[in-house]
Amino acid sequence: MLACAAHRVSAVEGVWLIPDFVSSEEEAQLWAAATGPAARWTQLSGRAVQALGGVVHDKAGLLPAPLPRWLSALLARLECQSGLFSEQTPLNHVLLNSYSPGQGILPHQDGPLYSPAVAIVSLGAHAVMSFSPHASCPEAQGASVWLPRRSLLLFSGVAYQNYMHGVNAVCQDDTASVCNTPPGLQGVVPRESRRISLTCRNVVKVRSGLLGGR
User: Fold this and answer.
1) The architecture CATH gives domain 8-175+195-201
2) pLDDT more than 70, % of the chain
3) What angle do CA 112, 116, 120 make, to 5 degrees?
4) Does the pTM of the predicted model rise above 0.70?
């Protein structure tokens, strides 16, 4: 089980980081599959996305589609080792986000359509994710977490329910406010290349009668 005290990285309860969760070879394979000829990116404000496993609707939940086979080994490993997912809450949806330097995503909460647990794998470049408490929790402490390339970020429970999370749209990150700055990277660190994140979740409500699975 990876989600344990040894991997806690911030004062925010329920946030864990596992560096080098995927190897360089695995990163290259995942990157090639995510950016290959079959990739269908949709451009949004500040990022491009691919939704794998189906489409999520506010009322209907997940309208499922088969997850690509190139994700099977990664998702099985996450389910087995993270301690946050189970047969009742399998990883059935993956959102790929592509960020160029200067792009990001506004603070947000994933909400009740999903089980309260998220697994994010970073490919290609680092990012800094900020956790900011809701206005209803004025005494709670926020945190900014350094996400190295090939790392796995897990968050659940309090971090999922009481905090917003986001990535600033900047071309460089100031590590002064980061709670887990890597040795030798103090100061301002430029974002020099494209980053792809794999956000893996369980959608609670799945519309029956449609294709799903891996």
Assistant:
1) Sandwich (2.60)
2) 94
3) 115
4) yes
Domain chopping of the chain, boundaries: 8-175+195-201
User: From its phi and psi, is residue 93 left (phi > 0), alpha (psi between -120 and 50) or beta?
Assistant: beta
Which amino acid, residue 128?
A: V
Q: For 94-134, how does the pLDDT look when each residue is reduced to its tens digit (9 = 90+)?
A: 999 999 999 999 999 998 999 999 999 999 999 999 999 99
Q: What residue has token string 């947000």?
A: 108
Q: What are phi and psi of 81, to 5 degrees?
A: -105, -20
> Do residues 26 and 185 touch, judged by C-beta distance below 8 A?
no
